[in-house]
Amino acid sequence: MTAHPSLASVRACVFDAYGTVMNLGDLSTEFAAALGDKTAPLMDLWRRKQLEYSWLRTLMGQHADFWTVTSDALDYALSSFGLDDPALRARMMQAWMAPCPYPEVPAMLDRLRAAELKTAILSNGSVTMLTAGIGAAGLTDRLDAVLSVESVGRFKPHPSVYALAVERFGCTPAEICFVSGNGWDVAGAASFGFKVVWINRAGVPQERLPCGPDVVLASLDNLADILGA
Q: Which SUPFAM superfamilies match (predicted)?
């Protein structure tokens, strides 16, 4: 199968974890009974604050691992909605240790590896979070590497994070296909020099940032096809 022209030189495929390989939408479903009509706005606020805190900590030089950032963001979200339920909070945090993968992920990774493409996760997640989540999803043996920002003490989209994949695979940025469902992550990876595939499941507009994706897909189903796998 012939690869998409812009991806013909790719030797490794590197994935964002949360919202790309792992389905964060399942978290809303899991806690809908407890949160009721607060589910969607609270979960949206939790995720937004999680990302904002990661970016702000990097700008301030005040790094904390993603578990701490996620915890702080949840506390803000719960407080914003007047909720004080330690048991619910504990359950919501624990859900990040075993998020469900999108259903097409295992077969897609198998195809890439059969085509001798290297595969990896490059994530803001802490090593503990990623190890647990990838293991629970049955993906451990389908990945050549799991790379966490903890190696550099900064969060994406800082260039030092994307450089971890270049160092791991010993190739140029243009030989790496970076795959993300997050528009800001797409822009950061493209700015670094990766070939980038944006998984735009929700059909949202492209971010108004200097760099964008080489290819846009609605899911991971056709990723192996465009990589010639």
A: HAD-like
